[in-house]
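Q: Here's a chain of 289 amino acids. Please give me its 3D structure as tokens.
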Amino acid sequence: MQKKYTPETLPYHLVVPSLIGYAYSSGPPTSKDWNIKDTSRVMHSALMELGFEKGFVTQGGDIGAGISRALAVTYDTCKACHLNFVVIRDAKNLPMDGVSQMEMVGLARSQAWFRGGTAYAQEHGTRPGTIGLALSSSPLALLAWIGEKYLEWTDEDPPTEEILRAVSLYWLTDTFPRAIYPYRAYYGNKAPVNRPPDDPEFYCKKPMGYSYFPKELMPTPVAWAKISGNLVWSRQHDKVSSTHKAIGSIANVMKGWPFCSYGTARRFCARCGGFCAASLAKTRENLRG
């Protein structure tokens, strides 16, 4: 952004907040459950204070996907949302028409992960205080808990320095115990029964974009993601570029280096029209294709 634009030619602003409980932010209260709706309320308040009363667009993955969707569903000022993670827990009766072979492989990967990879989430959701204290007792324990996921969940193993940098951020800020609070809403004793994908409470009526990545832990087919919102744009990517290539991927998104953050969300905004098209008019010509 700094290399491409000057303050006078900047077509829009990027706001990259630290979510409640993570690293640079204050922790959620310990006297009540804290879920994505609570975080979305704080994010919306922050955006209003920053002067975005006329509107904004969100992008999110993982926990951020739930927050982005909650903002789009709840607040008129959120004009559209782009997600690279769409959770559909009850897929038994969903049609297979339109599901590609690549997406079938992804569904098998998702089922395998549910069988053998969700124990950590159950621990986070049902005993957040216990696991939080245990991992706060030793940096090696925290490295083992988080580091294995960097190796198992990524398309390619990131550099050791990248893993150490991420784990060190949790350790030095002592934020891991409070960062896992949202898991209680998904895996805790009060977790809701599987919702249908078109649940009115979470259905996104605003323009919604979706990026599909085959190595996602729960890669939802595009046809199923469409059931959960007003899907106006989607793209299937080959892989996620690791974060140490982020700058290069953003700068070279037109050269086919997929990176689901600024570059992909930018393309979605250019396509979805209305508010987004107006706010990106200065860069529309560069984003076609």
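Q: Can you summarize the key feature?
A: Residues 101-116 form the longest helix (16 residues).
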